[in-house]
Amino acid sequence: MPLIKSNVHTHTTFCDGKNTMEEMVQAAIAAGFDTLGLSFHSYTAFDPSYCIRDYLAYMKEFERLKAKYADKIYLLNGVELDLYGERPSVCDYVIGSVHYLKEDGRYYPVDHSARGFKMLVDRVYAGDCYAAAERFFAEVKELAQNVRPDVFGHFDLITCFNSEGFFSEEDARYKRAALSAAENLSPGSVVEINLGRVFRGTGGMYPSPWLVRELNARGCRFMLSSDAHKCEALGYMFDETCRQLKSLGVRSLVRYKGKELVDIEL
């Protein structure tokens, strides 16, 4: 049984996930979870390719599964709300995320592909990756001020393709931008430890270890997250990551157990 028995960053075929909602629920039960949060991508009119397609059908299926599996697992209805997305009127929790950089009225994705990111930097920021990072973390600050999510999703997603060597996280400009966003979070804010990239084998967790230390020192709390787009990702490397976080000075995590946010000592 995993130490952390829940995941609330979970995508299904109602947005850009690969498995149905019921398949995800069954996989969570098989993994020993007692709680699963289903979090569709909020609707973004400027890019409908990846987000919620049919909210009414989504809610109908959610309610069906919540009743069907009530004796096996508690289901939560959540949303991964993009800074520029539409907030649903009813949900159990909000994961706030930045996926786009807005410049001159246009929206540029930061995580679609390495090639796309390079084109963004070259066309919009004249090849200056650090200017893109500064804009990204300015939007994270805006997320904290205007959205005030329950959980901050993939805090440093701007590093998504940094295995290509676009910029150094040791650079003073990058660190200033990231720390400025970190300092804008209220003490007790919940930041997810996102393992989506780890599962895909394309990099480490979000936030990077150095930034976990900084956020921890500023009184943030952390929630382990699969950012699962397929069943196999649920709970992937959870126990190993708990040990890594403990080595970084993190003493406890928070998680949803039913609707309640509880502390889990590492």
Order of helices and strands: EHEHEEEEHHEHEHHEHEE
Biggest β-sheet description? 5 strands, parallel
Strand content: 15-25%
Amino- and carboxy-terminal Cα gap = 15 Å
Q: Architecture, according to CATH?
A: Alpha-Beta Barrel
Roughly what percent helix? Answer: 25-40%
Please identify the oligomeric state: single chain
Give the neighbour order of strands across the main sheet. 1-2-3-4-7
Principal-axes shape call: globular
How many runs of DSSP E, i.e. beta strands? 11
CATH topology: TIM Barrel
Summarize the structure.
Helix content is about 35%, strand content about 20%. It has helices spanning about 20-30, 55-70, 115-125, 130-145, 170-185, 195-200, 210-215, 240-245; strands spanning about 5, 35-40, 75-80, 95, 100-105, 105-110, 150, 190-195, 220-225, 250-255, 260-265. The protein starts with 5 loop residues before the first strand and ends with a strand.
Descriptive report:
It contains 8 helices and 11 strands. The chain has a 5-stranded parallel sheet. Helix 4 (129-147) runs parallel beside helix 5 (172-183). It is globular. It is of the alpha/beta class and 266 residues long. The mean pLDDT is 97. It has a single domain (6-265), classed as TIM Barrel (Alpha-Beta Barrel), CATH 3.20.20.
List keywords for this structure.
266 residues; alpha/beta; TIM Barrel; 5-stranded parallel sheet; two-stranded antiparallel sheet; 34% helix
Task: Write the SSE topology.
Blueprint: E1 6-7, H1 21-30, E2 35-41, H2 55-68, E3 74-82, E4 93-97, E5 100-103, E6 106-109, H3 114-124, H4 129-147, E7 151-152, H5 172-183, E8 190-194, H6 196-200, H7 209-217, E9 221-225, H8 238-247, E10 252-257, E11 260-265
Parallel strand pairs: 1-2, 2-3, 3-4, 4-7, 8-9
Antiparallel strand pairs: 5-6, 10-11
Helix pairs in contact: 4-5
